[in-house]
Specification:
Length: about 210
C-alpha cells in the first residue's frame, strides 16, 4: 500500500510540473536560435525562464499602436473581384475592444453583403516573442479561418503592413495577401487588402474606410 501511495504521489507531482515544463520548452524554442558554427548560449535558469515568460506575456508599447482602432466605427467597404472590374460596395459597423488585459484587439463587425446579413470577427495583436504584429479573421459567409497575418508597423506607428498566404478557390493555388492598415488619427483608419494570385500581378481587392461613430 505504501508503494502504491508513493506511486500516486509521484504521478501527482509529475502532473503538476507538466505545464511549467511546457512553458519553458516553448520559451526556449522561441528565444533560442543558435547560428551554425557558434556555441550554444548558456541554458536559462528556471527563474530566468519564468521572468522571460512574464515579460513576453505583458502588453507593451507595440500594443498601444493599435489603440486608435478601439471603439465603434462606421465602415464603408469597397471590393474589386478582379483588376479593372466594377466595385461592389456595402456598409457596416465595427466595434473593437481589448481582450485578455490588452493583449489582443477583438473587432466585431456587423453589416450586409449582397443583400444578406454579414458578421465578422477580427483579432489583432503583437507577438513579443517573434517581434511581429499578428492578425486573423473569420466571418458568417465562410467556413475558413484566415491564416495568421504577420508584419510590422512604421516607425511612427501610423501604418501597419502584414502578409499571409491564403488558398484561392478560383485557381486552386495559394495567393499572397498583403494587408495595409492606415491609422489616420483617433477617429479614422483605413484597411486595404492587396492580392497576388498565382502567375498574376498584385491588385487592390478590398478597401474598408472606418469613421468613428458619434
Amino acid at each position: 500500500m505504501s508503494g502504491q501511495r508513493l506511486s500516486n504521489r509521484s504521478l501527482s507531482m509529475q502532473r503538476r510540473i507538466v505545464l511549467p515544463s511546457l512553458l519553458f520548452v516553448t520559451l526556449t524554442a522561441s528565444c533560442e536560435s543558435p547560428r551554425a558554427g557558434t556555441p550554444d548560449p548558456p541554458p536559462m535558469s528556471p527563474e530566468e525562464m519564468m521572468a522571460a515568460v512574464v515579460e513576453l506575456g505583458t502588453p507593451g508599447a507595440e500594443h498601444r499602436v493599435l489603440e486608435p482602432m478601439l471603439g465603434t466605427f462606421r465602415a464603408a467597404l469597397t471590393m474589386w473581384a478582379e483588376p479593372g472590374t466594377e466595385p461592389m460596395t456595402s456598409t457596416g459597423t465595427m466595434h473593437s475592444f481589448w481582450m485578455f488585459g490588452g493583449r489582443f484587439l477583438r473587432g466585431d463587425y456587423v453589416g450586409d453583403w449582397m443583400g444578406q446579413r454579414f458578421e465578422g470577427l477580427s483579432l489583432f495583436g503583437y507577438d513579443k516573442a517573434q517581434g511581429v504584429y499578428v492578425g486573423t479573421w473569420c466571418d458568417s459567409m465562410s467556413t475558413a479561418l484566415a491564416p495568421i497575418s504577420t508584419g510590422h508597423a512604421s516607425a511612427d506607428g501610423s501604418r501597419l503592413e502584414m502578409t499571409k498566404r491564403m488558398h484561392d478557390f478560383t485557381t486552386g493555388e495559394d495567393a499572397l495577401v498583403r494587408d495595409v492598415v492606415l491609422l489616420d488619427g483617433p477617429d479614422a483608419h483605413t484597411h486595404e487588402m492587396y492580392v497576388t494570385r498565382a502567375g498574376g500581378e498584385e491588385f487592390l481587392n478590398m478597401r474598408i474606410e472606418y469613421t468613428r461613430a458619434e
